[in-house]
Structure to design on (457 residues):
């Protein structure tokens, strides 16, 4: 997401518009990745 | 010619190991597991001569704990009176107090009080009088405005108020690294109920006073290095002293939450504290958020097991 | 012993109750006879590398990966083998 940034005079406020979409598969991804490690053929478990 | 009265008391059911009720009631909701507490039922059945039958059921629970679907329930004390008379059903709930609920985020106590009336032939199309629906969450409270919901029509609206949510606790509970902040959040929104779907069309939240927000996540920093404009954003947000933190709220029935955030303030050590006004459209998926909360160790093993099974079954059909 | 030897000896050591899974995602030594210690050291080192890779890939703290891994390893431990619950070894 590339924000639009207007840089103006020193004390004038900088306006920054952002679009942020939060992806939540973080824990789900880690959980799935661990599934592939934590099994017999990984040799580590 | 007195009326025929029958008073019955069900032996209090002690739930410490299994739940004996599930064996008896076939349509016990399969996702409801109760593992401790007591349920007591008392019935009264009257047949006044020449009049309609009148039946009343008193149902009481003490210290009930267990899991419903993916929500951990701890210490539910409630009593409920269900009365049938001349083709009308009336349910009075006056002592409902659930100490703690945990669908991924712990909150409670939850207190409900209300009355429901309906015609016997249309039990689900009645009038719900909400006298009290209040819960403590994240150091603050959330409650439904008193009101009458007419479940006969397809769409209902219910005003909800929020007061004193602690931003510090919210950011701690949020499953992401490097989020810290201070501030108390107040606000209100209109909850729309349409055939069991929940949505929010308008609502607003705002921090009561100025405060601080700090976001130090490795991923954001990495983003900052690759893009100068983003560099300014990540540096500003590392220690952002806000004067204004306000947002409108929209939530659709598919679980998408959209916040139109205004975050105005400065980072004292950036450009000599020059004011920076962020306008952020933040999109979050609440079901995914809850799933990721439930997968981390914030909830019981049983719920995590259900979540994984659910994720497995979700994957099956779309598997190429 | 090297990692390959440790990996091939692992299931035997677990089955004989020398090693068991801990909630932090690493192997614990229950009876330190034979090469139990050496096996655990090699395996845990390899696991830490995997956890660190996952943690940095997803920008989260390694302790989160270890916590999820620990829960999973204990869950997947077959009956008859040992897991550590609240600090004590329990045979599943």
């Amino acid at each position: 997401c590339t924000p639009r940034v207007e840089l103006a005079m020193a004390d004038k406020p900088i306006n920054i518009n952002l679009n942020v979409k939060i992806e939540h598969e973080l824990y789900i991804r880690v959980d799935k990745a661990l599934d592939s490690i934590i099994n017999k053929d990984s040799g580590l478990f | 010619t007195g009326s025929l009265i029958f008073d019955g008391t069900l032996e209090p059911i002690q739930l410490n190991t299994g739940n004996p009720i599930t064996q008896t009631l076939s349509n016990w909701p399969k996702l409801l597991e109760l593992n401790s507490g007591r349920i007591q039922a008392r019935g009264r059945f009257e047949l006044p001569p020449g009049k309609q039958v009148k039946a009343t059921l008193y149902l009481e629970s003490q210290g009930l704990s267990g899991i419903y679907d993916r929500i951990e329930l701890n210490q539910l004390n409630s009593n409920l009176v269900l009365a049938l008379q001349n083709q009308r059903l009336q349910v009075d709930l006056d002592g409902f107090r659930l100490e703690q609920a945990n669908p991924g985020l712990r909150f409670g106590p939850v207190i409900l009080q209300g009355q429901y009336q309906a015609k016997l032939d249309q039990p689900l199309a009645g009038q719900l009088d909400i006298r009290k629906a209040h819960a403590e969450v994240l150091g603050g409270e959330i409650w439904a405005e008193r009101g009458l919901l007419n479940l006969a029509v397809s769409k209902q609206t219910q005003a909800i108020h929020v007061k004193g949510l602690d931003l510090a606790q919210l950011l701690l509970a949020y499953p992401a690294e490097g989020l810290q902040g201070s501030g108390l959040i107040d606000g209100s929104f209109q909850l729309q109920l349409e055939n069991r779907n929940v949505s929010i069309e308008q609502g607003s939240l705002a921090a009561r006073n100025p405060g601080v927000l700090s976001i130090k996540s490795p991923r954001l920093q990495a983003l900052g290095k690759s893009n100068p404009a983003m560099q300014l954003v990540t540096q500003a947000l590392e220690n952002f002293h806000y004067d204004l933190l306000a947002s409108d709220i929209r939530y659709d029935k598919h679980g998408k939450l959209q916040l139109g955030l205004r975050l105005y303030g400065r980072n004292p050590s950036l450009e000599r504290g020059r004011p920076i006004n962020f306008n952020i459209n933040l999109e979050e998926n609440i079901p995914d958020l809850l799933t990721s909360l439930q997968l981390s160790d914030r909830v019981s093993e049983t719920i995590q097991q259900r979540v994984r099974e659910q994720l497995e079954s979700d994957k099956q059909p779309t598997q190429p | 012993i090297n990692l390959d030897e440790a990996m091939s000896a692992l299931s035997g050591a677990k089955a004989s109750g020398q090693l068991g899974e801990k909630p932090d995602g690493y192997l614990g030594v229950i009876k330190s006879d034979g090469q139990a210690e050496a096996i655990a050291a090699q395996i845990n080192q390899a696991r830490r590398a995997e956890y660190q890779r996952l943690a940095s890939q997803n920008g989260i703290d390694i302790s989160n990966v270890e916590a999820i891994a620990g829960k999973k390893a204990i869950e997947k431990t077959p009956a008859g083998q040992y897991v550590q619950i609240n600090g004590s070894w329990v045979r599943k």
User: Anything to note?
Assistant: Helices of chain B lie at 20-24, 167-173, 218-226, 228-238, 286-295, 301-318. Chain B has a mean pLDDT of 86.
